[in-house]
Amino acid sequence: xxxxxxxxxxxxxxxxxxxxxxxxxxxxxxxxxxxxxxxxxxxxxxxxxxxxxxxxxxxxxxxxxxxxxxxxxxxxxxxxxxxxxxxxxxxxxxxxxxxxxxxxxxxxxxxxxxxxxxxxxxxxxxxxxx
Length: 130
Description:
By secondary structure, the chain is an alpha+beta fold. The protein has a single domain (3-101), classed as Arc Repressor Mutant, subunit A (Orthogonal Bundle), CATH 1.10.10.10. 47% of the residues lie in helices and 21% in strands. The protein is built from four helices and five strands. It has helices at 3-12, 19-29, 38-50, 74-100; strands at 17-18, 54-62, 65-72, 118-121, 126-129. The strands form two sheets. A three-stranded antiparallel beta sheet has the order 1-3-2. The chain has a two-stranded antiparallel sheet with strand order 4-5. A hairpin with a 4-residue loop joins β4 and β5 (126-129). It is elongated. The chain starts with a helix and ends with a strand. InterPro entries: Metal_resp_DNA-bind_regulator, Tscrpt_reg_PadR_N, WH-like_DNA-bd_sf, WH_DNA-bd_sf. Residues 103-130 are annotated as: Disordered. It holds the Pfam family PadR. Residues 8-81 form the Transcription regulator PadR N-terminal domain. It comes from Salinibacterium amurskyense.
């Protein structure tokens, strides 16, 4: 599932919304990280509708402008739940890895200082003439 689809379905999981409300909800839910363009939103909604993840619930005219309302389907909700679980599992793996790092990483062994006019030779671990 794309990140765009994830956020659109997440916005619709609270109830039917029209396009502009979905744009605002996605921006709010993602704390501003996702700012969908209108063309991206409607292309994604069309794809999600073809996949039976959303459906149109109705149209209305508000202040002379048409609004189309969308809602998440049962299949869309199941897909969203599966994706949320997958993301949670990945986050848990990362958090466990971070938590396991309780001891500082081993410091890299300092290499011996070379004297002027000599080059360091890592194979011999000694300074060799330049």
